[in-house]
TrEMBL record:
Family: Belongs to the MPDU1 (TC 2.A.43.3) family.
Domain of life assignment: Eukaryota
GO cellular component, as recorded: membrane
Main location: membrane
Protein's recorded name: Mannose-P-dolichol utilization defect 1 protein homolog
Subcellular location: Membrane
Length: 265
């Protein structure tokens, strides 16, 4: 049987592909087109999903940020929910960094955290609390230094903290879910962000099972998937429901027109 590859990619394509899925799986899947190698196929799918999630993570909250800026409102956005989520992400970033986990299995967490800081700052700005914006930046920087550069947090302690992010992940979504339920609408919450989160965590469960033998991280993603499923369901349920202010404005404007017309008469 000939060992000549069926497909021979140029080096500028081969090098990153080998870097992503390894020499063995590259030979099996790309050169020999052997898709019956299930372990390599699963690994390649996992790597592809992971890379896609990281890329998606770089823009996942941009629509949310733009929606807040364009509307000039943070109505329906839970400060407590975003604060808990960001704290949880800071711990997860440190845990993955110090355990040398592949960037493709957690990279979006870093990118989403940067976007969370922007949203937290916008919440403070639109609530006329400029001092709060400064505390957001200083607090985040301080926590990151404490977990990574201070030498005060051992890897064992960080593992415990990562485990503690499981209930934090749970409760970080609960305030937003309750806010939506009490308001009877999703306010300025971005549908793109919510659904991106849902599909992203669904894919993360798969990539974690394939690449990271860590039950703590797996449970964390499973819980996040549960909460994101509820948020996605709320987004669908309240799809055509607008905030009370938005609904009242056409009515108010029509009443003003009626008053003006009566005066003219």
């Amino acid at each position: 049987m000939s060992n000549t590859p069926i497909i021979n990619l140029p080096n500028f394509l081969r090098t990153p592909a080998v870097g992503l899925i390894g020499e063995k799986c590259y030979t099996e899947l790309i050169e020999n087109l052997n898709f019956t190698n299930v372990p390599c196929l699963k690994y390649a799918i996992s790597k592809g999903l992971g890379l896609g999630i990281v890329v998606g993570g770089s823009i996942v909250k941009i629509p949310q940020i733009l929606k807040i800026v364009n509307s000039g409102s943070v109505e329906g956005i839970s400060l407590f929910s975003y604060s808990l989520e960001t704290l949880s992400y800071l711990v997860s970033i440190s845990y993955n960094l110090r355990n040398n986990n592949p960037f493709s299995t957690w990279g979006e967490t870093l990118l989403i955290t940067f976007q969370n800081f922007i949203i937290l700052s916008l919440i403070q700005v639109f609530n006329n609390n400029l001092l709060g914006t400064i505390w957001v930046v200083l607090g985040g920087s301080g926590i990151h230094y404490l977990l990574n550069g201070s030498g005060l947090v051992s890897l064992d302690l960080l593992t415990i903290l990562q485990g503690a992010t499981i209930p934090v992940t749970l409760f970080s979504r609960v305030p937003q879910i309750l806010t939506n339920y009490r308001n009877g609408h999703t306010g300025q919450l971005s549908a793109f962000t919510v659904f991106n989160y849902f599909f992203g965590t669904l894919a993360r469960v798969f990539t974690t099972l394939q690449e990271v033998d860590d039950k703590v991280i797996l449970i964390s993603f499973l819980l996040a998937l549960t909460m994101n499923s509820i948020l996605a369901a709320q987004m669908i349920y309240y799809w055509n429901v607008k905030p009370a202010k938005a609904q009242a404005s056409p009515k108010a404007s029509s009443e003003k027109k009626d008053k003006k017309s009566k005066k003219l008469q």
